[in-house]
Specification:
single chain; 2 helices
Length: about 80
């Protein structure tokens, strides 16, 4: 795997972890509140969302980069 492809894969894994960690915490807290078993519910939501987020970010980040470049009128 060339360095650019490796970078994109690792970026997708890290970005998904950061985003999903925060978003599932906030949404789980908003939906159920700070209840007994919160951490279990949150980790379950994290696991499901993370499995979806990594491939979505992997395939959509280049699209978002190009779209951002077009909006700002710069090369992406």
């Amino acid at each position: 795997m060339n360095p650019q492809n490796k970078f994109h894969l690792v970026f997708s894994i890290v970005m998904a972890a950061l985003m999903v960690f925060i978003m599932t915490f906030v949404v789980t807290l908003a939906n159920v509140g700070w209840v007994e078993g919160f951490v279990h519910l949150w980790l379950r939501a994290f696991t499901i969302a993370y499995g979806i987020a990594v491939p979505v970010i992997f395939f959509m980040a280049p699209v978002a980069r190009k779209l951002t470049g077009r909006i700002l009128g710069v090369a992406a």
